[in-house]
Amino acid sequence: QVQLVESGGGLVQPGGSLRLSCTASGSFFNTYTMDWYRQAPGKQRDMVASITADGTTNYADSVKGRFTISRDNAENTVYLQMNALEPEDTAVYFCHGKREIRVGLELNYWGQGTQVTVPS
User: Which of 8, 32, 50, 81 could make a disulfide contact with 97, Cβ separation 3.0–4.6 Å?
Assistant: First the structure.
């Protein structure tokens, strides 16, 4: 069983920055694809950024050029550096990890979420 614990959320003024961290317990962290999702009130949970085991990254269009995802496998941690924050970035941010055990069988884990608030 893997547990994901996020930290780093908070209140920041528009244009400011935050860095979210997600630390995983358990083994094989370096084999997981790690993602950050976010969910605003009344909206669905959407993927924000993703990083594969080999370091390939992917971003939602709304955060490209402002957010950076990275990982430190030695620390079992994935980060989300968020710059130039906007009120539209206000949401609960969730860390997610997935690992394919074999074709058709995938393990998925979620963190508890951390609130990011950017006032308008």
Answer: 32
